[in-house]
Each structure stands twice: as structure tokens, then as C-alpha cells.
């Protein structure tokens, strides 16, 4: 990759726009690809993404585009910021153009029915691509407003990690490298489920003790699940694990948290999602995670309880009662303590 080569960002939503701005701030020219020509034109003329990131100025180095073929032909570093339901549909038809490219997924979801992670899908579509995952506590609006932020680029490909660090590192955005793509990607997807739960707890006026218990037991539960799949539990102690869990479970800016909050106010799931008007990956992740946990027989009482409330018509007070009166358990049971 030469210094002059543009970088592609696929997806004109809030995170794609925030990443594009970071790249442009670092002097890179950016092709921000979106499917909607009217949106691209609105962004070109108004220098803003009014639907997804209102009030944030889009820098001149960013060109909103709709021609995917030429975007891929011109760029070798490509950030994928599409919702999980759209990733396969967008990339499959251009599979031939992805060989040898560096594809970095920022998508925090899991495919329905297959339980595939997004970078696995990319690998399947483009076996000769170089693949990475960017994940961490990265609320798009805060990134765009220059809140001091850390993230993780995870890949077995060290050169890819270095190139992403060089492209994104800035005065307000620090990029840490990891070789654990699996754990980093799993952490980013799983935490969305617990953010829905935290939003729900918050809307019901639950106390700070309760919120802290929820987040900590969520970490235990998601780590237990990941370990069962063969992940390294240490990754869950990093930015892409506990870091992202904390921000998404604590912030009303999180869309997953907002869905939970709306449910607690009495909205139906359909009403909550439609009022949001943006992606809340945790809704689908909850469905596939519950099915996978049942299949693997992993103990996940929070997932089971939230699934019962959201999809099985159970009353929240009954679920809370069952959670609180369940058999006593051990605190940190998900990391081997052999040798301590
Ligand atoms: N927003 C954040 O704070 C944030 C931070 C980190 C990661 N992410 C992840 O990034 C992914 C994208 O989220 P977002 O926040 O940018 O979503 P968003 O709801 O803000 O925007 C989604 C974008 O995808 C586009 N889109 C939807 N279906 C499409 C299709 N079939 N083809 C092409 N484009 C399509 C929409 O038009 C829109 O531009 C999600 O997986 C999310 O979890 C989001
Ligand atoms: O707004 P959410 O809930 O999709 O969360 C955004 C990011 O994943 C936070 O790191």
C-alpha cells in the first residue's frame, strides 16, 4: 500500500462515518461506500451524515461513493462497517475483487442460523484476503467527537495490524494490537446482549449495586461461553472484552442499551427497534447465543432470562426471582486457577 492510496470504508452508518473521519484526520483519502445514492449526494453537498451522525462535519478527504467495484479496485485497506445482516449480501457478489486485500471487520454481530463470526464469513467469501477485526469501547458519536478512545485491531497478520495502527492512530484514538481475532470478535458481539439487559435494568430504576452485579456476572457468563468455544479468557479482560462491556452496559448512547430501556418503558420489541431506527445487533445475537448455549450446554442464566422475557413471553419479575433464588455459585469460575 502506498501512502497515496485511498482507504475504503464500506457502510455509511454511524460507525463507518466515524472511522472515515479518523482516517481523513490522519491525512488519508477515504472512499466511504454506501448503497444509497441519495444519501451519498446529501453527504457530498451537506458535508454531514444527517441520518446517522447529525452535527458531525465530514472532512474533505472523504468521498461518499456508491460504486463498489471501483472502490475495491482502488483500495487495498478496506474497513467493513456494515450491519451483520448485510455483510454477506454486500461482499459475496464482489468476492473476486477481494483477493489479497486487507479487510478489517468492525461489525459486532453473529450470523443467524450458522453462528459464524463476521471475519469467518469474510474468510469464507475471500479465502485469499488478509483479515482483521477492529473492536473495543467505541461509541461512534464519542469517537467522532474526539473523546479519548482506545480500540483493538486483532489479526494473525502483524503487518495488517501495523498498517491499521498507522492509519487510525491519532491524538484522540489509540489502537492496540492483538493476535486473538477470535476472542476480540466474540467479545464485541456478545456484550451487546448484556447491554440490552442493562438498559432494561436502568429503566426500572435498579440501583448501582445491581448494575455492577449485572456487568460482572455478564463478564463471567460471556467468558464461560467463549472458553467453551476454545477462546483465551485473558482477551476478555482487555478493551474488546470488559472495556466494551462496560461502555455498552453503562451508556444511554448505546443502541442496544436503548432497546432494553425502551422495553422497560413498556414498548414491544418491534416498537423499540423501530423507534431506534439504527442497528442493535444484540437482538439477533441473543437469539443465536441462546440456541448455541443450549446446544453446548453452557450455563448462561442471564442470556436464558433475557431470552425468556424478550421472546418467550415470561414476566420480568418472575425471571428476576428465578435468577436471585437460583443455587449459590462460585464467583470467578471461568478462568483456570491452576498454579495459584
Ligand atoms: N455505532 C457504533 O457506535 C458502533 C461502534 C463499533 C461497531 N459498530 C458496529 O458496526 C456495525 C454497523 O453499525 P453502525 O452503527 O454503523 O450502524 P447504523 O445503523 O448507524 O448504520 C447502518 C448502515 O448500514 C447500511 N446498510 C444497511 N443494510 C445495508 C445493505 N444491505 N447494504 C449496504 N448498506 C446497508 C445503512 O444504510 C446504514 O448506512 C454494527 O455491527 C455495529 O455493531 C457500531
Ligand atoms: O450502540 P451499540 O449498542 O451498537 O454499541 C456501539 C459500540 O459497539 C460500543 O463499543
Largest sheet: 8 strands, mixed
CATH superfamily of the largest domain: NAD(P)-binding Rossmann-like Domain
Taken in chain order, the helices and strands follow as EHEHEEEHEHEHEHEHEHHHHHHHH
The fraction of residues assigned to DSSP E strands is 5-15%
Q: Find the CATH topology of the largest domain.
A: Rossmann fold
- The unreliable regions are none
Shape: globular
Evaluate the radius of gyration.
20 Å
**How many DSSP E strands?**
10
- Mean pLDDT score: 95
- List the domain count as a whole number: 2
Domain Glycerol-3-phosphate dehydrogenase NAD-dependent C-terminal: 180-321
Domain Glycerol-3-phosphate dehydrogenase NAD-dependent N-terminal: 7-160
Function: Catalyzes the reduction of the glycolytic intermediate dihydroxyacetone phosphate (DHAP) to sn-glycerol 3-phosphate (G3P), the key precursor for phospholipid synthesis.
Active site: 191 (proton acceptor)
What are the SSEs and their pairings?
Blueprint: E1 7-10, H1 14-25, E2 30-33, H2 37-46, E3 48-49, E4 53-57, E5 62-65, H3 68-74, E6 77-80, H4 84-91, E7 102-105, H5 118-125, E8 130-135, H6 140-144, E9 149-154, H7 158-168, E10 173-178, H8 181-203, H9 208-228, H10 239-250, H11 255-264, H12 269-276, H13 282-296, H14 301-311, H15 316-325
Parallel strand pairs: 1-2, 1-6, 2-5, 6-7, 7-8, 9-10
Antiparallel strand pairs: 3-4, 8-9
Helix pairs in contact: 4-5, 8-9, 8-10, 8-11, 8-13, 9-10, 11-12, 13-14, 14-15
Bound molecules: nicotinamide-adenine-dinucleotide and SN-glycerol-3-phosphate (G3P).
